[in-house]
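Run log, item B.
One chain of 371 residues. Sequence copied directly from the ordering sheet:
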Amino acid sequence: MIAGIIGASGYGGAELVRLLSGHPEIDGLALSSVTFEGERIENIYPNFLGRVSYPLLKAEQVIAAAGVVFAALPHGVGEEYAAACMERNIHYIDLSADFRFGDDEETYSAWYGKRYRFPELHKRSVYGLPELNRRRIRELAEEGSVIIGNPGCYPTGGSLGAFAALAKGLASPDSPIIIDSVSGVTGGGREPSRSFHYPECADSVAPYKVASHRHTPEIARNIAAMAGKAGSPVIFTPHLAPMNRGILSTTYIPLAEKWRLTMPAAMGGVLPPSKEIEAKTAEIREIYADFYRDEPFVRILPAGLTAATNRVRQSNYCDISVHLDLNGSTLIIASAIDNMVKGAAGQAVQNMNILFGFNEKAGLEAIPALF
């Protein structure tokens, strides 16, 4: 099968090229780029020299040649390509936000400032977080061509960190869930901007878009879906870190009353770690491990190991470590992903594998690059 990539010259598109060129079910690639049309991908990204060589075509040529199409485009420009794919009965996997909200045009418009051009298309779309919607993706694929709204990078790491607590009733139903996430600069894309300029971001970590980041409603919707109700309020703050890849999310989840420990008072309100805290943490860690037992790309880390971005680099894994605050009242979850893989291109390939009934791990089994 030929896999098409529209927008192959951006970071997300180039990562798709890297992953799909080694996929056992993919026979070749058809690539397009408006900026570099007519050039070859290896001239844009020299890491492909001697291994991957394709010309950059028009998007229409890619759709005509491909059995599945990935779109790594800016928000608001992919609907016409999705429509063309649906006419040809070709699955379309979109890395932008255009199809993440289904037919909820109001939420999309409020956060992205655009209206749907083809509202009927969004009824044929599904949110592509496999750990949430795998069954639905498979069901829709049996009916015909599907549009996948590939999740955002922050919502992937933050949501996976919270899901087990929500599904198993560990979370207090009315208390806010707080997610602090730190991202590498590739999350801003290949197009240069001042905030991602080296002198602006090197040797510094800073929050940005505080209380206004576009991924907030996506995270809130995921939490509500897993909780099976409106869900707890979400407070999300992203940070930019001077690294190329990775997202580390620290999620604070107030525990439901029956899960809280009543710790004795001490100076400052807390005591050092106790056997009660360790035992409760181990119990919750086992709940997380059981919840994700059949998920091929979620790793629940053992006691003593904390999630870190360097241990998931260039992989499709989400590493999760489970912790409990010293008062015994708040669950602290650290989750790490590679924003370019599980947060973008790798998750898109995982969705393709589900759509076609391939081994879900196909093309994604490389061991993370620690250094």
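Observations after the first pass:
- DSSP finds eleven helices and 14 strands in the chain.
- The CA atoms of residues 169 and 256 lie 7 Å apart.
Flagged for discussion on Thursday.
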